[in-house]
Amino acid sequence: MTHRRLAAAALAAGCWTATPLDAQVTTPPLLAPPPGLKLPATHETRLPNGLRLVVVPMHEVPLVQVVLSVAGGAREDGSLPGLATFTGNMLDEGAGTRDATSIAAEAAYLGATLFTGSDWNGVNVGLRVPKRTMRPALDLMSDVVLRPRFATSEVERQRGLRLASLLQQKDVPQAVAGNAFNAIVFPEDHPYHRPIGGDSVSTAALDSATVRAFYSRTFRPERTTVIVTGDITLPEARAELEKRFGSWSGSASAASRTPSSAVAPERRPRTVYLIDKPGAAQSVIRMGHPGLDRSSLDYYAVQVMNTLLGGSFSSRLNSNLRETKGYTYGARSGFDYQPLPGAFIAAADVRTDVTDSSLIEFNLELRRIRDSLVDPDELERTKQYLALRVPGSFETTGQMAGQVGTLLTFGLPFTWFDDYVRRIMAVTREDVRRVARAHVHPDSMVVVVVGDVAKIRPHIEKLGWGSVVPRQP
């Protein structure tokens, strides 16, 4: 019997009755205080060769996650941007006696997922595997970490693929806007000035010898951290890793080139940079300035402030530009936290004909968060949103490994999350306005717009936002 027939039969039998209007719920229920967060214990040790091991037992599911990270990453690229990410991607393109196809086939046979790559702070190798096939999967992982081939033919093939990808990115407005924004905000000798994946010039210079030299210089056990989460104990993890990585050693003369500091970017008068995309149906807007150090005492208040401003779907920027104005599918803002501070950025992709109007609304919301005290109900909803989403960030072995990795990256204690909810809930209206005034500066924005310049430039110039500068992609 169909649902429609069932409904008709129930109505005929008098089984369903309509809810009286005066009994209908017209206000949402009040939320209870956020529950306390109790995380599994974190255990730490070091192998004799200096490798750091961090283990978080999670015995609910017979899975194990292993993430090995060699400190440095793209911050060590030097004169060849993209070198670290290229090296990270090459690790599983042949290792030991296996080629890339054999590595992928063996991982699949073991029910494992093996991934390699690099970010600004480290070269990473990750393994997610059922407990029962963990040992052969760790053998495979150790080959990838300790015995990569970096064969000339594979390096040339991957170099060609990256060059093709970089060429394609020149036709992607979002990529063009992001690269231009970073190049303007950060000075030339800053690691973030150039794309993490490099450019065509630096990529063309990559060869097997260059990749091997980077690997030899950076891959050392005393610079390596392994995070293990899942159905395992510290003694088990130590025994398995010592068996595979205990004899690993590096050259005593090898030195890290990771910069302990960089020339700090400076705020400048607001300037609009236009990158031409003739005939574009939309304009890609990226605006911001140098951001905030992760160790700042303002961190918790800034989290609340930015969530209000543009860090959630119900944020002011998204509600204004998407829901009220209909200019875009989404508007957002955020702080890029890195050991070397990243940028504050607000962004949206908007219709060409409302580019100037969208900039006006961005400016309105950036000033409103600075100038007015937030409504108490809006503040409470935002704090509840941040507090209640925390437990969902620790559900899987991969999420747990990621959160522990973040704590290690910033030198934070493993107990940091114990106090997170309390600190978020303690943020006041005055705190939000204070940190907005301290860390959001509408008059010092770098504004990058990729779009049809012939159509948008006259309207943007009428805004009186200072210099309007054409820029090549």
**CATH architectural grouping of the largest domain:** 2-Layer Sandwich
| Count of helical stretches | 17
In terms of DSSP E residues, the strand content is 15-25%
Low-confidence stretches: 6-17, 252-260
Largest sheet report: 6 strands, mixed
Strand order of the largest sheet: 1-2-8-3-7-6
CA radius of gyration is 26 Å
| CATH level 1 class label of the largest domain | Alpha Beta
How many independent structural domains? 2
Let me know the CATH homologous superfamily of the largest domain.
Metalloenzyme, LuxS/M16 peptidase-like
| CATH-defined topology of the largest domain | Cytochrome Bc1 Complex, Chain A, domain 1
Helix-residue proportion = 25-40%
Which whole number gives the mean pLDDT? 92
Structural class assignment: alpha+beta
Shape: globular
Identify the quaternary structure here: single chain
Distance between the termini: 62 Å
What's the total number of strands? 14
